[in-house]
């Protein structure tokens, strides 16, 4: 996937990468839990060491792994946001349920997750999937 600012954003918002997730990858704070989740999907979709850093930086310290290595054989193709609960610009907690479509050496698949997010010091952070 490309990080061309004029290309369509991998998160499926319909905006260009530069107007959407690219600005968050560049350092802007995501305004909502959903925007952060979309930017994290785009980081997985575009890959590379700089995106591994972004994913770690947007992961809550209480659950963040010490290292992260993206699997180059997995290609993230499409994101469907199923629902959100809170996680808006005036909230400190939020939940985002999504389906992330991918292909890998075994064919096509879908990863479904309901994720918990918190906002600390004005920045949204991914905490963990809900059981």
Can you tag this structure with a few keywords?
4 strands, globular, YchJ-like, 131 residues, UPF0225 protein LK10_08840, Nuclear Transport Factor 2, Chain: A, alpha+beta, 4-stranded antiparallel β-sheet, single chain, SEC_C_motif
In short:
This protein has helices at 21-25, 33-46, 49-57; strands spanning 75-86, 93-104, 107-120, 123-129. The chain has 131 residues and is an alpha+beta fold. The chain has a single domain, classed as Roll (Nuclear Transport Factor 2, Chain: A).
Quantity of strands, as a count: 4
How far apart are the termini? 31 Å
Q: Which runs of at least 5 residues are low in confidence (pLDDT < 50)?
A: none
Which class best fits the helix and strand makeup? alpha+beta
Shape: globular
The CATH topology is given as Nuclear Transport Factor 2, Chain: A
* Strand order, largest beta sheet: 1-2-3-4
Write the H/E string, N to C.
Answer: HHHEEEE
Strand content: 25-35%
Largest sheet: 4 strands, antiparallel
Question: What would your notes on this structure say?
Answer:
With 131 residues, the chain is α+β, with helices and mostly antiparallel strands. It has a single domain, classed as Nuclear Transport Factor 2, Chain: A. Helix content is 21%, strand content 34%. A 4-stranded antiparallel sheet has the order 1-2-3-4, covered by helices on one side. The chain is globular and about 40 Å long.
């Amino acid at each position: 996937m490309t990080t061309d600012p004029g290309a369509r954003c991998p998160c499926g918002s319909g905006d260009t990468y530069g107007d959407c997730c690219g600005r968050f990858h560049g350092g802007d704070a995501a305004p909502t839990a959903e925007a952060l989740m979309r930017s994290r999907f785009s980081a997985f979709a575009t890959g590379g060491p700089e995106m591994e850093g972004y994913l770690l930086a947007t992961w809550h310290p209480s659950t963040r792994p010490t290292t992260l290595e993206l699997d180059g054989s997995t290609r993230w193709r499409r994101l469907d946001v199923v629902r959100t609960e809170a996680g808006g610009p005036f909230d400190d907690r939020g939940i985002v349920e999504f389906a992330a479509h991918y292909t890998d050496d075994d064919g096509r698949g879908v990863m479904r997750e309901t994720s918990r997010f918190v906002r600390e010091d004005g920045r949204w952070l991914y905490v963990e999937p809900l059981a």
